[in-house]
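Pasting as-is:
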Amino acid sequence: MTALGFALLAPAPAHKLRAKPKPPARFYHAGKRATHRPRPTLLRAPGSRAEVYAALSPAACLAALADRHIPFVREEPKRGVEIPVRLSGKMNGVLFRTDYPDGERNRVPWEVYDCRLVLALDDFAEILRAHSIIEVRIFSAWRPPAARWPMTEWARRHQGALAVDVRELRKDSGEQLDILEQFHGRLGAVQCTPDAPAPAPDSPEARELHQLVCQAADAHIFNSILTPNYDPAHKNHFHLEVTPDVDWFMVR
C-alpha cells in the first residue's frame, strides 16, 4: 500500500453483454432550467481523500497512478484540464467507459479525465467491486470549454475533467443497475442522513444504488455527489466530482 494507495482487488471475470446493442449514450443536457434545485448542505471534512487528491501536483498525481498500477496514457494538453489522462484498462477490476465503440473511445473527449479524479474513481472502484460491479457506463468526464478558454487556465467540474456522470453499473452476473430506471429517488429529498426517505417504490436495486452513493459519501473520496434527488438535470446519473482548494463535501 502506498501513502495514497489502497489495496487493489483481483480482476473480475468477463461480464455478460447486452443481447441487443444500444447506440452510444451522449452526455445529458437538461431541456430547461431546473426549478426544484435544493440548496446543498456543505459538510466539512478537512484532510479528506478528495482534498488530498485535489492538492496533488501533476508529478505527484501521475506517480500515484503508477504506484497503484492504474492503466492510463498521458493525453496531449487539453483546454481547461491540468493533468489530462485517459484510462486504458480496469481500475480495481472495474472498467469505466462510455457507450462509444472501442475503436472510437480513444478519440472521444468524454473519456479524458484529470489524473486527480482518476485517483478518486480508483477508490470508488474498490467500493463497487464489493458489490460485484465490474463496469461503469458514463455519459462524460471532460466536456471541452469554449475555444476562447485559455489553454493555461484550469477549469473545474466537467470542463476541467474533474467530474464524471455515471449512468449505469454492470455486475459480473450480467445484472445492470440503471440510475434513470432504478434509483427511485424523490426530487429535493436529502440523501445519506438518518431522515433520508427510502426509495419509492422500494426495490433491492434501488436500495443498492442508494447504498453505493452513501458508501462513497462516507469515504469522502468526492467533494460533490449529486443524484437524481438534486434536480431534473440529474435524473439519469450520479455526478461525482473532485474540487480543488476546498475542505467540504456534499451529497444530494
